């Protein structure tokens, strides 16, 4: 997910009605025909989902409104988790890069038996593989 998408989602959350949002049951909000579902927050109507033509897939229509409310309610925490994870991944990339550099230098400076350097080579290779994953190259 790009920084632009995250910024757009944050901006929309700031402009949207306060949370939590709730998917009301049919008829609970005095809807137009008793068959619609209202998305609301503290008795403020946010959206009305008309169920005309939903007879064959009522469960899908119900899931759509409930999912909308759940996504909006969860979005602030999800964005925070995403931003925190991105920061940690960037830090991990730097830390593993530094460790890889130190392992490489230790290997270059190695004056012992070549077979004793195998663990250094393996650790350096694991760092390389992990860095490729962090950068999305694998």
Describe it.
- The chain is mainly alpha-helical.
- The chain has 3 helices and 3 strands; from the N terminus they run H-E-E-E-H-H.
- The protein is 59% helix and 9% strand.
- Strands 1-2-3 form a 3-stranded antiparallel sheet, with helices on one face.
- Strand 2 and strand 3 form a beta hairpin.
- Helix 2 (58-108) packs antiparallel against helix 3 (118-134).
- It is elongated and about 85 Å long.
Order of helices and strands: HEEEHH
What is the rounded Rg? Answer: 26 Å
Number of helices: 3
User: Unreliable runs, pLDDT <50, ≥5 residues?
Assistant: none
Categorize the overall geometry.
Answer: elongated
Class computed from helices, strands and strand pairing: mainly alpha
Portion in beta strands: 5-15%
DSSP E strands, number: 3
Task: Provide a brief overview of the structure.
The protein starts with a helix and ends with a helix. Helix 2 runs antiparallel to helix 3.
Strand-helix topology:
Elements: H1 3-15, E1 22-23, E2 37-41, E3 44-49, H2 58-108, H3 118-134
Antiparallel strand pairs: 1-2, 2-3
List keywords for this structure.
138 residues, 3 helices, 59% helix, 3 strands, mainly alpha, three-stranded antiparallel β-sheet
